[in-house]
Structure formats: structure tokens, C-alpha cells
Amino acid sequence: MTIAPEKAFACIDGVVHRPTWYIKPAFVGLACAVATLVVGVLVNPAQAANSRQVERLLETNACPRCDLKNAKLDNAKLKGADLTDADLEGADLSSADLSGAKLEGAKMNGAKLVITNLEKANLREAKLGIMRSRNEDRKDAKQAQEFPADLRYANLKGADLYNAVLTKAQLSGAKLENANLNFANLVDADLLKANLSNANLAVANLVRANLKEAKLNIADLTGANLAAANLTGAELDNAKLGSANLSEAKLNQAYLGNADLNGAVLAEAYLLGTLLPNANLQSANLTDADLSGANLSGASFNRANLTTAGLKNANLTNAKLAIANLSGADLSGANLNYAYLSEANLINANLSGTNLREANLRSANLTGASLVGANLVQCNLISAILKEANLSYTNFSTADLRGADLGDANLSYANLTEADFQGANLAEANLTGANWQEAKLKGVIGLNRYSPSETAAP
């Protein structure tokens, strides 16, 4: 029997449209459902639309505001392409050439850009963060899968990423020399071994970012937020970090030679073995920071807050710490040769075994400080306050202590050879076993109660 075309059943959008006659409706309905499912899988309307726009892009090298979600564009030649405000979420652009491309405002969350060439591309305010799985609007949204943008080893030299969103982006090994990341959001981004030399990261948000072994030479991080960021082994020589927030950041073994950290916040930061020669840390906040074993030679800490900071065995040779707050700081075993500590606050600081040879501590406050076995040979302690300080076995040979206040200080067995104590206060000080040979004692207060047998004075 021949069936007229107009009487044949039809399956449209999952609905069975049947003529007056039909055979086994259940079977037809099932066939329709299966056909709809298969067609839906093979030819998704959105994917089909993307395909047309992909063709347009490849033919004209321009597709602004196009829907290119999940488009497969790996190895595509799109140099200078115009993709302004395009939707490229989840797109695969691996190894593509997008150098000089216009991607301003583009949505690229979850996009694959591995080894992609984006040199000098315009990515201002582009979204290169996380793409979440479709179940994010359901009750199990908290378990939605996240797909961060993948820019590993991408070439972003000179790219403009002003105010771009790169949350959790994978940028390990990426080339970002001379890139503009001003105001960019890089929270939790992975920049392991990335090259950001001379990049502009001023006021960028790098909270918890992984910058381990990254190159940030001459980079501008002024006002950037690097709280809890990992900068272990990073290169930051001559970097600008003025007013940056580095609280709780890890800077162990990092190099910050000549870096500018004026007014930066490094509270509770880790700087073990960090190299900071000639760095500028004036007015910086280093409260509770751990700088044990750090190289701080020639660094400037004038007016810096180093309250309870850990500086054990640190190298502070020729460092400038005028009016710095080092109260409660641990400087035991540190090297402070020729350091400038005029008017510094060292109340209750631990300077045991510290080398302060020829250091300038004029008018410094060392009340209650411990300097057991410290070396203060030729040290300038004019008008310094050393009340109740523990100075036993300390070497003050040829030191200048004119007008210093050593009331109630413990100077037992100290070496005071040729030291100048003129006009100093030694009331109630413990001078048991101290060596006063050739010391200048004119106008000293509080020495008259000691007999020659109690001291080693000549």
C-alpha cells in the first residue's frame, strides 16, 4: 500500500503528529523520542549556531559579540582578529595565534589557551576566570564543577589585561613581560614560574596567588593586594611594591634587591632566607614577620614597624633603622655592623650574640633588652636608654656611652675597656666582674658604691 506524503506521521520537537490512520502508536512515540534524543545530541541548536559564527570568524577574521561558546579553534590563525565582547566560554584556543587580537570585554571563562599567542592582544576587562558546570543553579550548586581558564605557557607579552578577571586562572609558565594587569583580578591564580618582568600589576588583586619562582623584575605592584600569596623563590629585584599588602605572604628565598616596599604591609609575612639588599622598606609594617636569616644589608627600615619580628641571624649590615619600632623583636645572632639605629625602639628586644660593631644607636631605647654576649665595639650609644637591660658579657670596648642611662642594667662581666661613660647613669647597675680598664668615667652616676674588688677596674 502506498501512503500519501501528507498522511505520513511526523515527529517535530518531540511531539508526534499523526494522520487519521496510524500503526502501533506506542512504537511510533518511542521511535520519535529516540530520534529526538539522537538528533539533539548530534545537532545541538546552540552548537550549530556557533558553527556558523565560527565560519564567519575564520572567513572574515572578525566576529564581535558572537556566541562562540565551546568553539573548537585550536591552532587557528586569528592574528589581529576582532572578538570584542565575544562569548568564548569553554572555547578551545590552544596554540592559536591571537596576537594583536581585539578581545576587550570578551567572556573567556574556562577557555583553553595553552601555548596560545596573545602577544599585544587587547584583553581589557576580559573575563578569563572560572566556568562552572550547568548544575550550578540547582540544589547541588555547591558541588558544581569549576573549569578555570587555562593559559599555561601562553604568550601574553605586552598584552593589555586592564581590569581583567583571571580568578583561579592557570598561568604557570606564561609569558607576561610588559603586560598591563592594572586592577586585574588574579585571586587564587596559578602563576608558577610565570614571567612578569616589567609588567604593570598596580592595584591588582593577587590574594593567595601562586607566584612561586615567578619573575617580577622591575614589575610595578604598587598598591597590589598580595595577602597570603606564595612568592617563594620569586625574583623581585627593583620591583615597585609601595603600599602593597603582603600580609601573611610567603617570600622565603625570594630576591628583592633594590625593591621599593615603602609603606608596604608585611605583617606575619614569611621572609626566611629572603634577599633584600638595599631594599626600601621605610614605614613598612613588618609586625610579627619572620625574617630569620634574611639578607637585609643596606636595606632601609626607617620608621618601619618591626614589632616582635623575627630577625634571628639576619644580615643587617649597614641597614638603616632610624626611628624604627623593634620592640620585642628577635635579633639574636644578627649582623648589624655599621647599622643606623638612631632613636630606634628596641624595648625588650633580644639582641643576644648580635654583632653591632660601629653601629649607631644614638638615643635608641633598649629598656629591658637582652644583649648578652653582644658585640658593641666602637658602637655609638650616646644618650641611649639601657635601663634594666641584660648586658652581661657584652663587649663595649671603645664604645661611646656618654649620657646613656644604664640604671638597673646588668653589666656583669662586661668588657668596658676604653669605653666612654662620661655623664652616664649607672645607678643600681650590676657591675660584678666588669672590666673598666682605661674607661672614661667622668661624671658617672652610681659608681661610688662599688669597691675595686667587685669590678675589674684598674
UniProtKB/TrEMBL annotation:
Claim: Oxidoreductase is one of the keywords in the record: no
Keywords: Membrane, Transmembrane, Transmembrane helix
Transmembrane regions: 21-43
Matches recorded under InterPro entries: 5peptide_repeat, Pentapeptide-BTB/POZ_domain
Protein name: Pentapeptide repeat-containing protein
Source organism per UniProt: Funiculus sociatus GB2-A5
Organism lineage: Bacteria, Bacillati, Cyanobacteriota, Cyanophyceae, Coleofasciculales
